[in-house]
Design a protein that fits this description.
222 residues; alpha+beta; eight-stranded mixed β-sheet; two-stranded antiparallel ribbon; 5 helices; 10 strands
């Protein structure tokens, strides 16, 4: 039986501005500081068996990241958690550790993710946000501009089929959107396509840099 584990963690503060690859490097270094040996893949270019379930877009906070890894010796999850909490920097909060299930990796099994989007509203902006979300989803199609990497151009695409849930409420002077979208190898929708499409539909002029996005859940095939 392989010594595979999963750590659940939250990411915030200044660390929300570091990339997915930098997060992987951060944890490789943290395991070294903690004195926990990761196992490595075989072949000409062996690498540590460590991965995050789904890349988190730059600038996003999260309360639900999952780090899957394999180590060279059997350890109790509580011991791993204690050692790693002393090795990670401020901005990373380790919430729990357990043994990973056998079979496909979390990355291969991911199907959806949920997010909370905080959008500051102009003074006096009022509407029924529940009805607004309902009307948005009633559209026959929800067009969004998606960048084509190879051609480096934006192409219009219909994202409606990749939106699983959309709800909203006003809290103080902010609109809080609760969204659940496809995420994974089979189908993947970035909130960066949904947010401007919704803002345009709702007549919200808030600049994107003034909005905060937090990933709140990850969902997997069993």
């Amino acid at each position: 039986m392989r010594n595979k584990y999963v750590i659940k963690l939250a990411k915030g503060g200044y660390l929300k501005y570091i990339s997915h690859l930098d997060m992987v490097r951060l944890f490789k270094s943290a395991f070294k500081r903690a004195g926990i040996r990761l196992t490595h893949s075989q072949g000409f270019n062996p690498h540590p068996r460590l991965s995050l379930a789904q890349p988190l877009p730059l600038g996003y906070s999260s309360t639900c990241e999952l780090l899957e890894f394999e180590i060279s010796e059997d350890m109790k999850p509580a011991e791993i958690l204690d050692k790693m909490r002393q090795a990670v920097p401020e901005g990373i909060k380790l919430l729990g550790c357990g043994r990973a299930a056998e079979g496909k990796s979390l990355a291969a099994r991911a199907v959806a993710a949920s997010y909370e989007v905080r959008i500051p509203l102009d003074a006096g902006f009022e509407c029924d946000f529940g009805e607004l979300c309902e009307n948005f989803m009633k559209q026959e199609a929800i067009p969004a501009l998606k960048r084509q990497k190879k051609a480096d151009v934006k192409k219009e695409t219909d994202i409606k089929g990749m939106i699983r849930e959309l709800q909203g409420e006003k809290v103080d002077d902010n609109l809080i959107l609760y969204i659940k979208v496809d995420a994974g190898n089979r189908s993947n929708l970035s909130p960066e396509l949904l947010i401007p499409a919704f803002a345009s539909f709702a007549g919200i002029n808030t600049a994107r840099e003034e909005m905060d996005v937090t990933r709140t859940g990850l969902y997997f095939l069993r």
